[in-house]
Amino acid sequence: MLMRIGLLLLVLPILALMGVYFLELSDARECLLLQDGHWDYVEGVCRDTPQPFVPWIDRRPWLVNGGMLVSVAGLACCMVGLYVKRR
User: Fold this and answer.
1) CB 46 within 8 A of CB 39
2) Rounded to whole angstroms, how far apart are CA atoms 24 and 28?
């Protein structure tokens, strides 16, 4: 049981982070390629003037750090699940 919970905690935050990242990436690519604009990473909108790049860790630190923390907790649960004998 602990192993299943650990695997869920290990994999789900990574998939959620990738999903949010690729949604934002598709919006930025649409702005660049279809609207011929510049993506404002802070506001999340397409602008006419060039905008500076702001890393994802600066824009959403709780999402990134929290997701990684939950993944590490899932890894710990998996390790405990492997270590403890089945009864």
Assistant:
1) yes
2) 6
